[in-house]
Write a structure and sequence with these properties.
3 domains, six-stranded antiparallel β-barrel, conserved putative lor/sdh protein from methanococcus maripaludis s2 fold, Elongation Factor Tu (Ef-tu), domain 3, OB fold (Dihydrolipoamide Acetyltransferase, E2P), six-stranded mixed sheet, mainly beta
């Protein structure tokens, strides 16, 4: 009887151990998501902010005194090529020219100007499309020779941006740029660096003073969504490389000596692999040595703490 009792006891112990062993193994297995490394084209960028402005403007002026019957535009108006800006009172203008000649003893019509070449315009018009930026013309008054209107181009725009001294060394004339802004959401415009000021300046914000260098970035093919005075964010492409091994930031760790490493996945094993990193880009970190295209890497290596560990692979991110 005792013999049977003993056999029953041993069987129960072995059974419990056999059930517990898989749980123990399972407890030592780390669940990881992994990524499959591919080569990518990368860009390194510098970020700056600024204001959109017209890169060109032109002036509408008169060479002779004019009396204006009416002024047809005001500051901020968008005008088309050939649009009337002001209507000239030809009769009153002629009288004024004669009066000026009588007063000074020299007729405007016979003295300063050759009568055969003098023409009093009926209107003043815009020679190009643009936005009226200044108006000095006044209806009913004699306007002396000079600038009466200034028109800022709407087809030739640029961003005047402030670039931090920390990144200005990477900026060069001719580099391509991407322009975005809250005033023209969901739209992007290409451009390039046209000019970099030779000296720096300081700008004072609400918290601190920053040293910056002013740069001008042209805007390719601007449209009606862009307006002078809009704030703009400029992403300047400072470097580019094709077919580069890039590892996600969340796959990289550092040891106590700041050496970077990843965990490569081979079957159900994760192996610590030290890497030589290069540039940091938007997609992740360029890896020069230690990782190849097609490798599987753990995306949560903080769960792993030894050179080699058993893992269970979950989601695979391409």
């Amino acid at each position: 009887m005792k013999k049977y009792a003993w056999l029953f006891f041993c069987t129960a112990v072995l059974l419990s151990l056999s059930i517990g062993i898989p749980d123990a193994v399972k407890a030592q297995t780390v669940q990881v998501n992994v990524c499959k490394i591919q080569k990518e084209d990368i860009e390194t960028c510098a970020i700056a902010t600024g204001k959109i402005e017209a890169s060109e403007q032109y002036e509408v002026e008169s060479k002779i005194p004019l009396v204006l019957q009416s002024v047809e535009v005001e500051v901020g108006d968008l005008v088309k090529k050939g649009q009337t800006l002001a209507i000239v009172d030809e009769e009153a203008t002629t009288e004024q020219l004669v009066d000026i000649g009588n007063t000074t003893g020299t007729s405007f019509l016979a003295g300063t100007y050759d009568v055969s070449q003098l023409t009093i315009p009926q209107t003043l018009t815009a020679s190009e499309e643009g936005t009226v930026s200044t108006v000095s013309a006044i209806a009913g008054q004699t306007m002396q020779p000079g600038i009466l209107f200034t028109i800022a181009s709407t087809t030739k725009l640029q961003v005047r941006a402030n670039i931090s001294e920390d990144i200005i060394s990477s900026i060069e004339v001719g580099q391509k740029a991407i322009i975005t802004g809250s005033g023209f959401k969901d739209r992007e415009y290409m451009g390039k660096v046209e000019k970099i000021d030779p000296s720096a300046k300081q700008i004072t914000g609400s918290v601190s003073t920053q040293t910056v260098v002013e740069a001008v970035i042209s805007i390719d093919q601007p449209d009606a969504y862009l307006k002078s005075g809009f704030s703009a964010k400029v992403k300047i492409i400072t470097d580019r490389a094709d077919d580069v091994v890039v590892v996600p930031y969340e796959a990289v760790r550092q040891d106590e000596e700041n050496h970077e490493y990843v965990y490569k996945i081979l079957g159900d094993q994760a192996f610590r692999q030290y890497i030589l990193s290069g540039r940091e880009v938007e997609q992740g970190i360029e890896v020069l040595e230690g990782v190849r295209q097609g490798d599987l890497l753990a995306l949560n290596p903080k769960e792993l703490d030894s050179d080699r560990e058993r893992v269970a692979v979950g989601k695979v991110v391409e």
